[in-house]
Amino acid sequence: MSEEQPHANLAVPAFRTEKVPKTQTQNGHGTVWRFGGADKAAKASTVTLRGVIYMLFDNCSKDVKKTILPLGHGDPSVYPCFRTCIEAEDAVVNVLRSGKSNSYCPGAGILPAEVIYCTITQTEHNNNTVVAVADYLNRDLPNKLTPDDIFLTAGCNQGIELVFESLARPNANILLPRPGFPHYDARAAYSGLEIRKFDLLPDREWEIDLEGVEAVADENTVAIVVINPNNPCGNVYSHDHLHKVAETARKLGIMVITDEVYDQTIFGDNPFVPMAKFASIVPVLTLGGMSKGWVVPGWKIGWIALNDPEGVFESTKVVQSIEQSLDITPDPSTIIQAALPEILEKVDKNFFAKKNKILKHNVDLVCDRLKDIRCVVCPKKPESCTYLLTKLELSLLDGIKDDIDFCVKLAREENLVFLPGKAK
Q1: Are 169 and 318 in contact (CB under 8 A)?
Q2: Element (H, E) at 407
Q3: What value does the mean pLDDT take over residues 368-373?
Q4: What's the burial of 34, exposed, middle or buried (CB within 10 Å: 0-12/13-18/19+)?
């Protein structure tokens, strides 16, 4: 390994310790430039995972003899044992070699009948894809989805962005879980939605504090975000608890946004229950995708599913707003879109079982070893997702102020990168 490529054996962010010199706003002739960077994203960028991870990697040693162990970025795809299934790879290769998916694709999945000929083939691919996603989700739902209820996105994160932009009317607020996935906070801040937090209760299997939800909601609340299976807590909500969530949301007159991207990453005893089973009680907007289940986050394919038998999303113009947002945003890759029907049809359950068996083994191993470390406590053994949430007993640690201080010093001394809980 050459000195010019430190830690080239791992897929880690590039070190960013070099400071870029500031540019001047005036030239030698006294010209004042009338442009500058907008600060709209400034508040949002302070709560991103990426920013925290970059900061921790910048604190790692550049000594190539001390391998970096990146355990904070939630992407197992860099490890050979988590390579995606051959069926998924073959589907993408077949589409690529067909040469039929190199054109643009309609964002919302529907084009007018008078569409010009050169896009007809790609429109057919897109319609086939939304049909496949609807069929995939309908396996467990009493109220069946139609292709018109499905919108394809460039990963689950773009789905979050589209939905939040669609809901961001003046004075609106949204209810987010604590702990939670920080991209929700970042996108809410960027979209101008006021963030109100409700707690997840560690002594009750990380259930949602429904009394707390009612306490923080008001007449300007538009939605509650439910992450199930839950990242980062690693729990899977029961049928009864989700039913109570639906009843609470209906009482408050708000929609439920459910993030179910980890629905194929479960290794505990509790079965996964889709929130859309309760769509007859409350309108449910489901965010999903391939990134976690198939371990292919780089493929950037996800979906928004609207399960709403009463037509509330239509009457409140949520559907129209999402469609309008899709018209001005990038589409997911047409190659991956065209491959998706074959991937979903030929899904190999043995692949999921093997992946989840490895994750369970890792969880069991870590939880067993943590028993010997008094200053680190695991409130609940995870049964899903790829994170293990722990609590630091700061009274037993000398010279440690908080979890961020702990993670910075661990990165600096051991090249071991954990994600501090405050980033969640």
Answers
A1: no
A2: helix 403-414
A3: 94
A4: exposed
3-class DSSP assignment, residue 114: coil
Whole-structure pTM value: 0.88
Task: Tell me what the pLDDT averaged over the chain comes to.
Answer: 88
Identity at 335, one-letter amino acid code = I
Per-residue DSSP letter, 21: P
Structure tokens belonging to residue 40: 């709209």
* Rounded distance between C-alpha atoms, residue 93 and residue 99, angstroms: 10
Burial 84-119 (b: 16+ CB within 10 A, else e): bbeebeebbeebeeeeebeeebbbbbebeeeeeeee
**Would the CA dihedral through 238, 424, 161, 219 be positive or negative?**
positive
**pLDDT tens digits, residue range 15-33?**
444 455 555 555 556 788 8
Q: Which residues contact 76 (CB under 8 A, 6 or more apart)?
A: 82, 295, 386
- Percent of the chain having pLDDT more than 90? 71
**C-alpha dihedral (26, 31, 32, 38), degrees to nearest 10:** -70
Which residues, in sequence order, are CB contacts of 330 under 8 Å at separation 6+? Answer: 154, 158
- Range 65-68 contact pairs with CB under 8 angstroms and sequence separation of 24 or more: 66/414, 66/415, 67/7, 67/9, 67/10, 67/415, 68/7, 68/10, 68/12, 68/415, 68/417
- Measured from the Cβ of residue 148, the count of other Cβ atoms closer than 10 Å reads 14
Residue found under tokens 């396996």: 139
Structure-token pair, residue 244:
């109570």
Q: In 139-287, where does DSSP find H-type helix? A: 155-167, 182-191, 210-216, 239-252
Distances (CA, A) of 58 to 104, 399, 412, 415, 416: 39, 21, 9, 10, 12
Work out the pLDDT band at 105, boundaries 50, 70, 90: confident
In degrees and rounded to multiples of 5, residue 290 shows phi and psi of -90, -15
Whole-number Å distance between alpha carbons of 120 and 126: 10
What residue type is 43 in one-letter code? K
Provide the token pair at 217: 């909601």
Q: Which of 53, 46, 57, 63 is nearest to 17 (CA)?
A: 57
Q: Which range among 100-104, 173-177, 402-406 shows the weakest confidence by mean pLDDT?
A: 100-104
What residue ranges define each of the domains in the chain, with the CATH number in brackets?
1-19+52-74+387-424 (no CATH), 86-345 (3.40.640.10)
